[in-house]
């Protein structure tokens, strides 16, 4: 995979939408994520157990959803950007094998600590369009070089 291209502050406008990205989390990915994060809760990898808890299938871990959204932001900002701040909140159930769409928009452009900064709203939606994970981010972007 190639490093993301540099995104310059001057090329970003308030209200600009980030290109949506759709991800489908597999049960294998969730099992491995549970192992790496030492999360033994069976609702994330044991479908029979999830059914016994009244769930339709295994649930995608909240931190995995947050990680996908933060990667969405860092991919968007490119190799010259710096993720200053990121916060998310799980609000709905994401199910294994379900397409999840990551979306976002630029809320504000300004300077912080003497650097060009951009505030973003990003979120994850279910295939039905339900908001599952809202998030906010502040990124520093490089200024376009002057000649």
From TrEMBL:
InterPro entries: HotDog_dom_sf, MaoC-like_dom, Mitochondrial_HTD2. It comes from the Bacteria. Residues 21-107 form the MaoC-like domain. One of its GO terms (molecular function) is (3R)-hydroxyacyl-[acyl-carrier-protein] dehydratase activity. Pfam families: MaoC_dehydratas. SUPFAM superfamilies: Thioesterase/thiol ester dehydrase-isomerase. This is MaoC-like domain-containing protein.
């Amino acid at each position: 995979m190639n490093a993301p291209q540099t995104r310059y502050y001057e090329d970003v406008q308030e209200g600009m939408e980030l290109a949506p990205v759709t991800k489908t989390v597999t049960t294998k990915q969730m099992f491995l994520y549970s192992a790496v994060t030492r999360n033994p809760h069976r609702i994330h990898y044991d479908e029979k157990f999830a059914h016994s808890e009244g769930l339709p299938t295994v649930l995608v871990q909240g931190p995995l959803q947050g990680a996908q959204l933060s990667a969405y932001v860092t991919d968007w900002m490119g190799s010259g950007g710096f993720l200053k701040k990121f916060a998310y909140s799980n609000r709905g159930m994401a199910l294994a094998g379900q397409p999840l769409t990551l979306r976002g928009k630029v809320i504000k452009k300004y300077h912080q600590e003497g650097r060009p900064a951009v505030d973003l709203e990003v979120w994850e939606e279910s295939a039905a369009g339900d908001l599952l994970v809202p998030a906010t981010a502040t990124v520093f972007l490089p200024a376009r070089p002057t000649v």
